[in-house]
Amino acid sequence: MSYVNCGNFKTSYEKDAELFQTRLSKFLIYAFVTALFAVPFFLGDYLLYVMNLIFIAVIGAVGLNILTGFTGLISLGQGAFMGVGAYAAGYLSLTYGLPFFLAIPAAGLVTAVFGAFFGIPSLRLKGLYLSIATLAAQFIIEFGFIRLEFITGGVTGLSIDYASFLGHEIDSDFSFYFLALVLCIIMTLAGVNMMRTRAGRAFLSIRDNYIAAEAMGINLFRYKLISFAVSSFYAGVAGSLWAYYTTIITPENFTIGVSIQYLSMIIIGGLGSILGSIFGAVFIVILPEVLQSFSDWAGGYYPNLTQIIGSIKEGVFGLVIILFLMFEPEGMVRRWRLIKAYWKLWPFSY
Amino acid sequence: MEFFVQLIITGTVIGSIYALLALGFTLIYKATDVVNFAQGELLMVGAYVCLHLTVSYNVPFWASFLITLVFSFTMGFFIEKVFLRRMIGEPIISIIMLTIGLSSVMKAVVQIFWGTDTRTYPQVFSQEPFMIASLSISRVYIYSIAAVAVFLILFSIFFKKSKVGVAMRAVASDQQAALSMGIDVKKIFALSWGIAAVVSSVGGIFLGNINGINTTLSHFGLKVFPVVILGGLDSIVGAIVGGLIIGILENLAGGYIDPLIGGGAKEIFPYVVMIAVLMIKPYGLFGTKAVEKV
Where exactly are the transmembrane stretches of this chain (chain A) (predicted)? Predict the structure, then answer.
């Protein structure tokens, strides 16, 4: 009964592709999820708020990791795609009165179409060129948020109602927690499972060697577009969740800075790993909050600190990215694997 | 007609600053294969250092200009030595993220030291405009175009004639061959960062003299992408031509399209051009076509 198997005892492909490799890991994951459903009863509003941000970020980061980590297509447009999702959800619920459980998937689909459209250059462009093309997409979409006032409300943005479920308004951090958690679990599970399907394996082969992949009969164009669409679907869901959380959708929440944050999440967490996306999302969401509380505490001694805390946050954010890239380029998920490997034979490691 | 000519002139000024920035970007990309997302921050730091010397220490403008160049060179040199040296051979996304990280750090440092308010340079160039026929052109425009032209010519000569310049071109075209011919590739890497920082800070100083500076100056760094894509990522001529074209197009868009749609066209137009170039001619006007083999 160990968390990791000590050797390879698999006798069939089905076993190799199993979601849970051992019974203990299955049990622990179930226990963890159950715990997640229980904690909001013990947390204060501020911690619930942080948790909600984390759930939204996890969805977005898993989506970006499918595109960048698994398929190898770098995107600097995740922020804009989240915006598309948020505005789509806002527009659909305001104009057609869709309830949130229809508006969120619909927003995801709209964003997927957008993503696939901006993914079309990926047939011709790779690596650097593609990342620059997505940068352009980011700016063009951002421009659209401000200029297409009849849909987006321009600079003032859209203001929507809280999601309501069975006559109960999801208007507090506490009730939103469950909505976000459920969506987060669904999306993460879908992500893990997607990597076991034909499409998921096609993504990996495109990342590792696209020429070989094409020679083996993988339709590059189709799978790259699917990857863009899936990733944007995640971004759309994350964006629409954000919209229902804040109920005010304005363009400045979906800038290039947001795209960079999501990229840094998957870099710090670990490229090409769903678990890594979760680690990275948690880390990047918590980091500024920790700095903020540090500044609140130290502000009593150094009053100047509170004025420059915004700059310090940005600097620390950049520094963390640099340090991770220099000293742990494979991200936190590698540390996690090392820790697991260490306990594998415990206590008889020799 | 006069409006049109004014737009062209402003476009040329901004375009020449883009050309300097793009020159720095291309240098780094050519020699070290690094895509620098922190180019705009190099420009911003140069502009702030020069301003600080002139205003706070009352150094004459020409002296602080020269000191800034030395400072920028040292900064670029050490950025390469400390951060980029370790990244050789890493995948492209890591390098992109590293320069993005650098850009946030540099922006934060500038904000901590100098705040976020717009600051203006003291009167360096005479206010009285230059008259060509009925057209008045502000003097600082003339000076900045002239300075940019001088720098571009200097660099062209440097790359064609000087030993270091030739060595840089050699490293750019084939690192291994250059290494085996006895060229110190590491030194060339650091040098190209130093030079890139210098040209960017020249752009920053002139920009500061035209508009004043604040931390949004770093957005210029992202405008460099349309320029280098249009010109070809690894072409120095391309950087210059691309810079001028994008600068002029941007201003024309600002002048003629903005009134129709109510603003913002200036910011977005270069990227629209870039998407078109990427779709039609991904290696730009002068770029080398990459041939891929299995």
Answer: 27-43, 49-67, 100-120, 127-146, 174-192, 225-245, 265-287, 308-327
